[in-house]
Automatic annotation (TrEMBL):
Gene Ontology CC entries for this record: ribonucleoprotein complex; ribosome; rough endoplasmic reticulum
UniProtKB keywords: Ribonucleoprotein, Ribosomal protein
Protein family according to the UniProt entry: Belongs to the eukaryotic ribosomal protein eL27 family.
Protein name according to UniProt: Large ribosomal subunit protein eL27
Classification via SUPFAM superfamilies: Translation proteins SH3-like domain
Coiled coil: none
UniProt record, GO biological process: translation
Residues annotated as domain KOW: 4-31
Length: 103
């Protein structure tokens, strides 16, 4: 079976403080290391999603509700569920622009 936990893969966190959150694999370690002798991955994701805003809200309230909080953490593969989506880097742009595409 091929390796499917690769950088750019969108995953759902299943356990711990960030359970139910979407994340993207930044770096994967399939064989483990001396301090972590199991397969694991460094992931970055969204901890706090933006809340719903309406047209009746003021600018201050909309700005406050539109904030996003991110997290970066190392997870065991057992605590991650891969999705079919992948973040792909466009090489023809100078900046790192990502687009959200299903595999």
């Amino acid at each position: 079976m091929g390796k499917f936990m690769k950088p750019g893969k969108v995953v759902m966190v299943l356990a711990g403080r960030y359970a139910g959150r979407k994340a993207v694999i930044v770096k994967n370690i399939d064989d483990g290391t001396t301090d972590r002798p199991y397969s694991h991955a460094l992931v970055a994701g969204i901890d706090r999603y933006p809340r719903k805003v309406t047209t009746t809200m003021g600018k201050k309230k909309i700005a406050k509700r539109s904030k996003i909080k991110a997290f970066v953490k190392v997870f065991n593969y057992n605590h991650l569920m891969p999705t079919r989506s992948v973040l792909i880097e466009h090489a023809h742009y100078r900046k790192m622009n990502f687009c959200y595409l299903p595999c």
